[in-house]
Amino acid sequence: MTEWDKMQAHQIYNDFDADLFNRRVAAKKLFREFNRTEDEETERRQEIMRKLFKKVGERVWMEPDFMCEFGKNITIGSDVYINFGCTLLDCGQITIGDHTLLGPRVSMYSANHSLDAAERIAGALIPEPITIGNRVWIGGGSTILSGVTIGDDAVIGAGSVVTRDIPPGVVAAGNPCRVLRKITEEDKVGFPVREDFPEGCASERKAK
Questions:
Q1: CA 20 to 30 Å from 39, out of 2, 108, 168, 206?
Q2: Which residues are catalytic, by number?
Q3: Torsion of CA 78, 22, 1, 67, to 10 degrees
Q4: What confidence score (pLDDT) does residue 207 get?
C-alpha cells in the first residue's frame, strides 16, 4: 500500500514520502495559476478547479489567494463562495456542502502530526476528514481542525477554532468553538427569499 493509499484510507502515513511531495508540487502549480487569473476569466477558473479538486459543483466562486495541499482530497458542492486567503490542508478528505460560505482567511487542517517527537520528526501524520454541511456560514479567520463535522445551516463566528463537531442550525463561536444558541425564526431580517435559490446565490452574482 502506498502512502497515498494509506492517506485515502485515513491511516497513519509518512508525510515525507516522495510521491506525496510531487503531488503537492502539482497542486501548487494549479492553485498558483488560479490565483493569477482575473475575475473575468470564469471559464479558465472553472477549468483549473476541475483539475485541482476531487469534485467541484456548479457556480463555485473562489477568491485568490487560495491555497491547498493536494486538492484531490477536496470535494466542493454547488453555489459555494470561498472568500480571500483561504487555506485547505487536505491530507484527510475535506467536503464542503452546497450553498456554503467561507469567510476570508478560513483555514481547515485535516491531519494531526504524532504527539510523540520521534514519530513526528520521522513523518508520522494522521489524517481525519472534515465535513462541512449545506448552507453553512464560516466567519472570517476561523480554523477547522481534523475530524470535525459542522451540521447543515450552522453559523461559525469569526475567529473561532473548531475542535469538535457542531450540530445543525446553531450559532457557535469561540476558542474552542462552542454552541451559543439555536437559530430560530426570530433571526429573520425580512429579506425576500427566492425559491430558485441557485440563481440568486452570491457565487453566480459574482460570476456575472
A1: 108
A2: 113
A3: -30
A4: 37
